Amino acid sequence: MSATESKPEPRSPAVVAGVSMRDLLASCAAADAVSTPPRLPDPQTARPVREHREAA
Description:
The protein is mainly alpha-helical. Helix content is 27%, strand content 0%.
């Protein structure tokens, strides 16, 4: 090997972002819960609202 040739440097292991799969899945579930509108109540199980009496 001559002085102008360089040795290939050993590859370093891949750098991980530092986020666990558990945290990633939790953040996805939270984002889904926040971005999904609430469901409408089922018309068959919805009870009519009773009128409140006026306070004395």
